[in-house]
């Protein structure tokens, strides 16, 4: 958390240095601060997980937006073409994500993706019940979600051993 505060401090200093307060100056200040902090990290003697977390969050945002676009096109194609290939089903997906924040993020990302909807999380928080629009192979759908969104969320939110 201290690294995040230091990065924000660098971004603010960057904006003051150039006397510009735009989104571009905020992003460029955060990027410069990130690389400066990464370079001086060995001098501090403490290895921070901040740098990997930032990378995993960027990866999550980019890949989720890609999934969002692909799923939207797939649903639109099914709506506007005369042949419907949707095969809706209720699918139970075992969860590897452990934290409340991780479960919340996985369920919301799945619900935001066209063609899938999170229905319920089991009481023991180990199974997520989903409604899937294209469930020709429910196991393939589960595998895709686990290797995709759930993995990205675990990387971004949860501590790794």
Automatic annotation (TrEMBL):
Q: What is its main location?
A: membrane
Cell compartments where the protein resides: Cell membrane
What sections of the protein cross the membrane?
12-40, 60-81
Q: Which UniProt keywords apply?
A: Cell membrane, Membrane, Plasmid, Transmembrane, Transmembrane helix
Alphabetical list of Pfam families matching this protein? MNHE
Lineage: superkingdom: Bacteria
One GO molecular-function entry: monoatomic cation transmembrane transporter activity
Its membrane topology? Multi-pass membrane protein
Q: GO CC terms for this protein?
A: plasma membrane
What's the family?
A: Belongs to the CPA3 antiporters (TC 2.A.63) subunit E family.
Per its UniProt record, what PANTHER family does this chain match? Answer: NA(+)/H(+) ANTIPORTER SUBUNIT E1, NA(+)_H(+) ANTIPORTER SUBUNIT E1
Q: What is this protein called?
A: Sodium:proton antiporter
């Amino acid at each position: 958390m201290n690294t995040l505060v230091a990065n924000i401090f660098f971004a603010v200093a960057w904006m003051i240095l150039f006397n510009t307060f735009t989104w571009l100056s905020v992003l460029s200040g955060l990027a410069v601060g990130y690389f400066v902090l990464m370079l001086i990290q060995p001098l501090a003697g403490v290895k921070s997980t901040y740098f990997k977390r930032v990378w995993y969050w960027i990866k999550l945002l980019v890949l989720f937006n890609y999934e969002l676009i692909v799923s939207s096109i797939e649903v639109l194609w099914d709506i506007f073409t005369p042949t419907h290939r949707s095969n809706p089903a209720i699918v139970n997906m075992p969860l590897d994500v452990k934290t409340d924040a991780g479960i919340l993020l996985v369920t919301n990302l799945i619900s935001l993706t066209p063609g899938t909807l999170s229905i319920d999380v089991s009481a023991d928080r180990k199974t997520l019940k989903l409604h899937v629009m294209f469930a020709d192979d429910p196991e393939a759908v589960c595998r895709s979600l686990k290797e995709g969104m759930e993995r990205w969320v675990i990387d971004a939110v949860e501590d790794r051993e």
